[in-house]
Design goal:
The protein has about 450 residues and is an alpha/beta fold. Helix content is about 45%, strand content about 20%. The radius of gyration is 27 Å and the shape is elongated. It is found in: Cytoplasm.
Amino acid sequence: MKQTIHDVEGTMEEKAVLVSLVTNELKRTDFSSEYSLQELVNLAETAGVEVLETMVQNKESADTKWFIGKGKVEELKMMLTELGGNTAIFDQELSGAQVRNLEEALDVKIIDRTQLILDIFAQRAKTREGILQVELAQLSYLLPRLSGQGKNLSRLGGGIGTRGPGESKLEMDRRHIRERISELKRQLQEVVRHRTLHRERRKKAGIFQVALVGYTNAGKSTILRQLTNADVYVENQLFATLDPTSRSLELPGGKEIVMTDTVGFIQNLPHDLVAAFRATLEEVCEADLVLHVVDSSSPMRSEQMKVVGDVLQELGAHGKEQITVFNKIDLCGAAELEMLTADSDSVRVSAYNNADLERLTFAIQEKLLGDTKTFRIPADRGDLIAKLYRIGDVLEQEAEEESLLFKVRVNADDYAKSGYMLTAYELDRTAVPSQNAEDGTGTVEVFDR
């Protein structure tokens, strides 16, 4: 049995009935209401809540006062009384007024999906950066709902919806909360500045950045640990890891890259959370390559992939060079494997299979280092030779009388950034440098042979 914060404090454990409202609008979404409710059960259990029962209501639209129908509220009250529940968790986001009305009618703590996810993040945050980001998200969520927080603010014993900033902060008035939000944003801007400096140093050193993204519990942390021997927490639960972890990895050709594990995505990921974690998620935007890790065994695989794609679109990282990593193929049947995409932009793996991981590293290398080119460099041009080693993977080197012959696998973007200086020495091209080409101020006309 899971130990919750309530066990430690000696107070009553949270026991909840989970409620889902299936509206016409919800029926038009990609996720089925049954899957969404099951995901809510997993979220609640991850937060340390004992799930007593689930309740579903089909209704054309949400009730502005109660969210669910008045009759359903009475039914929920009886169910909570009979089962000894002290919390009701809703699968959709509630307004402040709806929370207040439901609390008065049910006399239990009312939590919505967003608050539940924020609570899990509060439990998972360990680093200073993670704690700052969670607090910012919680306060941003709380600010417009202060008038609807009624008994939630006065209930003792903490629990879901009250972790993170702490009760004292939740009771601050709007002005103090706004001041705290401003301070958190300032501190996170400093985090962004440090991250930017680190990224610039890596780029100057010619080190590639690879970001792992995916739906929560797809296996990103497991892949990072297996590839790099990283000491990261791995568990079969939602949002097992929160704080981003970066580790170096040497590719088969000897090139060193940096891999970063990012926070997992989920359907209806709170907007405040995406905004608060932008400093972390910017790692995805700045990455040279994105590994989209997919749980191949999930019956909602396609829908989960769409959620990740939508979040990447929101971050402005949708057009990034990407490899889809279909993970957990050891849990798939033959029919499921047949349905997985098979092309140069995807790899099927089991994170615990060394041969699969080796294929993945070769795929990463191919994407990052790109085409193979041959260069003849004058022996006295050490600067150009060093540049070749920085932008690519030198496969072969052969000495001639007054020059060196290099066969190099190079990334297209890095090669383009190198300008005419290397293009002029490409073996399969004839380049005519201008008068000032050597000092970097001229232009080069390049003709195919």
